Amino acid sequence: MRYGTKILHNGNETDPNTGALSIPIYQVSTFHQEDIDRPGKYDYARSGNPTREALERTIAALEGGTYGYAFASGMAAVSSVLAIFRPGDHIIAAEDLYGGTYRILTRFFCEFGIEVTFIDATDVNAIEKAVRNNTRALYLESPSNPLLKITDLGAAVDIARRHNLITIIDNTFMSPYFQRPLDLGIDISIHSATKFIGGHSDVIGGLVVTKREDLAKKIYFVQNGYGAVLGPQDCWLLHRGIKTLRARMEIQQQSADKIARWLKNQPWVEEVFYPGLESHNGYAVHAAQATGAGAVLSFKTVTEKVAKSIMKNVKIWSVAVSLGGVESIMSYPVKMSHASMPEEERRRLGITDTLIRLSAGLEEVEDLMEDIEKGAILV
Question: To the nearest whole number, what is the mean pLDDT of the chain?
Answer without folding.
Answer: 96
